[in-house]
Amino acid sequence: MRKKVLPVCLICLLFLSAIMTANAASLPFTDVAEDSWYYDAVSYVYENDLFYGTTDTTFTPDGSMTRGMLVTVLYRLEGNPETAAGNSFSDVDPGEYYAQPISWASSNGIVNGMGNDMFYPGNNTTREQIAAILFRYANWKGYDTSERADLSAYEDRELISDFALEALSWANAKGILTGNSEVTLNPCGLATRAEVAAMLMRFEQTQPQGAPADSIVTGGVVYTIGMTRAELLAAAGEPEEQLPAFDGSVWYVYGTDTYANLCLAGVANDTVVALCASGTGFSYQGLQMGDTDLTLSQDPEFIDVSLLTDSNDQNILHTVLLEDEFYYGGSRYTQETLAGESKVNFHLVNAFRQYHGKRLLGWSEGAAEAARLHSQDMADQNYFSHDSLDGTDPWTRLERQGVNGCAENIGAGYQNGADVHDGWINSSGHRRNMLSESARTLGVGAGYNSNSNYGRYYTQDYCF
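Predicted structure:
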């Protein structure tokens, strides 16, 4: 892994997954016998903090599993990721233990409601519902879900709901959900806590642990260095935006709907030469946003890996950047690339805010123009300050563009929009502005002059 070495840079602000295993230690539950079929599964979920007992000494293996409980278990399996507050379901009390897990699962397409804005978190979960949720979760993780089983031998196959047919075929093929007998699948039967424990253990045992060394997985898509542009479009679809970069590549931007699965794929010569991911949904070799143990299981050949961390928050991982060592496109500083890197920075800010449960910011053209003009003025006149050399302050510059500002960050010398993003995160004051509760919109602008002290200059303007 390449250690990130920053150039001499300036920043200034204005006020303001490891493999789970079951532990062989004895369980505290008097109702889980060591010779029971579910003993290993209960050990697995208990030792990995996925399930708790119904009391200190009972697990209640034959008890039911509600929809709220199931989503909470998956949320724990994912490492309790931070997610934006709020739910679209009218029957999910924000004070309940399952509120944040349901918000996370719903925003990532892992669970659906049951109509009329209702989730019914207290309803018991059927076997086919569990299969469907695990199937969506596996797709979201980017796992291979192509395997299918022939269910024709089960006499009750006609009872399988249309929404669950594909998921049950997959789960049965993987051995995650087996029949109650040789001829019954019992798709509509309620799943017990022991059965769910067994399904989760089998699910984890049959899935890959982490992404390949040259790939990032997010939103059910595997993004890979070296994949062709056609392969990228086939896997992820048309990008939401295309942003020219300083190095001659073009960032194909994905995941800006919620920013949980933000991924930027740098394309040059019809090939993916760089990947940049942030938000709660990405995984790189099992690493996710918020992790502190950044040990890689593989050292990828011919790929520079930058794991960007937040020194103001226990050095947690906030962004992963992969770059093809063989690609060199030079340095191109044009109005298009300056605007492109500015928009990259904007998207990374929103992913950072998404992780911390903050409101997503809209893009302000007025603030972006004020930021661009100030950055270019600093570059052309070779100074570094919030106030222009003629004495104009940030608020006056923003008012000229028809917007009201609440905070400003500036930076100089950083290589690109992702680089200055990392610099601002690692300065407590700038980071505070990035997570501002008052801000509603953001505009970012960059400037360049080869004769200035720092070459590249950046401004962020946060607005009410």
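Summary: The two ends are 40 Å apart (CA to CA).
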